Amino acid sequence: MKVTNEYVLELQQLNRRMDNIEKLMNMILLNDLIDDVEGVTEKEKNTKKEVLKKESTRVRIADIKRDTEITIDPYLLKLLNHYNLDIGEQGRVCDINVVYILMPRHMGTAIGDVIYLNKKFKERYPEMEPVFKYETINGMHRKRLMKEKISFCVKGKEMRIYGAGQ
């Protein structure tokens, strides 16, 4: 078999392509590693913030006649901590006292757990309407929340509040 210049050139081109592919794969791997490191740093920061938030067991609740301060009972606080949930802002929406429960972005909480938390929260605080605050939500989860008449909101898109006592 005779090796011609054409074959040599073709082999050189293939070698260059393989080298370029190798370089690209290394860059992709490095990019993923950098994202992971940044993600860990952000996660550490968020964990510190969550710990600071959870140390406070008091929530200010706006009432029609006066501002009241309630203490989240240890059982409910333990439930929220178990599911890695935080209590967010609170206030009034259309004459309904609401308290937002912040849902984690990357950890999905099962719909059964949300139903259970909603039930327990309403048992202990019948004057308040818990609103589960999502960054994103899938269609089946959304549909089930509406069927169960559980108040929720999706950041920048939708808010459904069914009202306390319903």
Automatic annotation (TrEMBL):
It comes from the Bacteria. Residues 4-50 form a coiled coil. Keywords: Coiled coil. This is Uncharacterized protein. It comes from Roseburia intestinalis.
